[in-house]
Amino acid sequence: MFRRILIANRGEIAVRIIRACKELGIESVAVYSTADSAALHVHLADIAVCIGPASGAESYLNMQNILSAATRLGCDAVHPGYGFLSENAEFARLVEQCGMVFIGPTAEVIEQMGDKAAAKALMIQAGVPVVPGSDGVVTSLEEARQVAEEIGYPLLIKASAGGGGRGMRRVFSGEELENAYLTASSEAQACFGDGSVYMEKLILEPKHIEFQILADNYGKVVHLGERDCSIQRRNQKMIEESPSPSKALTPAIREKMGQAAVLAAKAAGYRNAGTVEFILDHAGNFYFIEMNTRVQVEHPVTEMVTGIDLVKEQIRIAAGQELPFEQRDIRLNGHAIECRINAECPEENFRPCPGRIEGLFIPGGPGVRVDTAVYQGYEIPPYYDSMVAKVIVHGDTRLEAIRRMRRALEEFIVEGVDTNTDLQYYILHNEEFVRGQFTTAFVEKNLSELKQ
Ligand code: ADP
Q1: Rounded distance, CA 271 to CA 296, Å?
Q2: Ligand 1, residues 279, 290, 439: which to mutate, most atoms within 8 A of Cβ?
């Protein structure tokens, strides 16, 4: 087992990883920017190193400073968390070149899955269903017109290097194509430094269903069931749950999707924890959309229903241990829901709302888990993500989980900054949500009603 791990991240995920390290008897090294000297991860880690100024580009994305801290302190491994350098193949490669273990898949796999058009091509080869679309990237407007003719409208233009829903455009007719193609590729260029886009059929009002997988270094791959992440705003997840309440997800389709997820991971030569994302249509057809090669924000819902600590498993796999369970040992127990709490103002078009937390009460009681790095008196810096907490609940049934989440959100008090807690609370009371019959279009369709 490792002796010392550097955590190349901040916020709740850095705290989450430090906790896993402590429980495994591993020393943790936190890195932080000058804006984060009072951050919780800095206090909780055994050692903390400042790696640069406030801006992410100069600190949490500063590979050189992070790697020199890790080597100077004699770390055996680096955990990248999510976001920042977690899906950066060059970083993974450099960690290994410095003689440390990157807690994740190999650089080659990160590269291949990070190029979404290439990932899709690999899945087609492996026999995993994908959304019908262009054969790889579309390099000119002319080609875009041709592909549109073949697949028909409505369609979706997506950034090949994409993430977080950026560089994505829906197109409903031929007149919209030119503008959508140009804006998607320029947005992709601006966000990811790579303007390549590809096209696929837009599946109307689908469910977003993803499977958590774990793969060791010895060829064993298991999946830990699905998460339903259909409650999204602008392709960004807001609420996640496991299992999915969707009626379209019959036991037979669930079984098939799980097998497809394992097949996808095997085809990619995957190791460590990863997520295979699908969309599911009303008729029960499912399509691979992408594979995330890191721990997900929403990993706790899977932990709550399986009883498996995903971060500890990531560390154990990276240390060369075999997965201690088989597929048949994985059972989903009860129901778990996660709400992402963001420091933002839903009334003002979700403007981020950093600032000082004047008062804070964190909910608790049976079946409630809160993953956060904020505390009373903490000043949320304006430089990073606006997500400040995740409230996760577990219940024997979905209804119990819903009721538990409602009361947890009622207990939650954050003073000094605006949050989306009320909006989450209204969603938890919405009839469509309670019936479980929602799709990725839910928030958009109900937003004005929800905000009242
Ligand atoms: P990103 O990496 O930017 O998050 P994804 O490929 O994961 O991009 O897609 C994000 C979201 O966009 C999905 O959860 C789903 O809601 C929607 N989406 C993606 N592809 C399609 C599609 N072909 N049809 C309909 N919705 C889609």
Answers
A1: 15
A2: 279
How do beta strands 359-361 and 379-380 pair?
unpaired
Q: What local confidence, expressed as pLDDT, does residue 257 receive?
A: 98
Q: Which tokens go with 139?
A: 């390099």
Q: Is the CB of 183 under 6 A from ligand 1?
A: no
3-class secondary structure, 163: coil
Atom of ligand 1 lying closest to residue 237 CA: 14
- Nearest CA, atom 14, ligand 1: 208
Question: Do 80 and 9 meet the contact criterion of CB atoms below 8 Å apart?
Answer: yes
* Continuous H helices in 58-106: 63-72, 89-97
Q: β-strand 101-102 against 77-79: which pairing, if any?
A: parallel
Q: Which residues contact 251 (CB under 8 A, 6 or more apart)?
A: none
Positive or negative, the CA dihedral 48, 52, 58, 63 is: negative
Q: Is 190 helix (H, G, I), strand (E, B) or coil?
A: helix
Q: Which two tokens stand for residue 233?
A: 């705003």
Judge contact between 261 and 223, C-beta under 8 A: yes
The CA distance from 244 to 257, in Å, is 13
Closest CA to 63 of 16, 97, 104: 97
HSE-CB at 349 with a 13 A cutoff on CA atoms is 0
**Contact 206 CB / ligand 1 (< 6 Å):** yes
Its pTM stands at: 0.96
Residue 336: which of 313, 307, 365 has the closest Cα? 307
pLDDT at 452: 65
CB 168 within 8 A of CB 191: no
Catalytic-residue membership of 271: no
Question: Residue 198 belongs to what H/E stretch?
Answer: strand 197-201
**Pocket lining: 359 vs ligand 1, CB cutoff 6 Å:** no
Q: Which residue has the tokens 């190999």?
A: 106
CB-based contacts of 146, cutoff 8 Å, min separation 6? none
% pLDDT > 90, the chain: 96
* Burial 238-277, CB ≥16 within 10 A → b, else e: bbbbbbbbbebbeeebbeebbebbbbbbebbebbbbbbbb
Do residues 103 and 88 make contact, with C-beta atoms less than 8 angstroms apart? no
C-beta 167 within 6 A of ligand 1:
no
User: Can you tell me the mean pLDDT for 82-86?
Assistant: 97
Kind and range of the H or E run holding 379: strand 379-380
Q: Which pLDDT belongs to residue 162?
A: 85
Give the tokens for residue 356: 């000082």
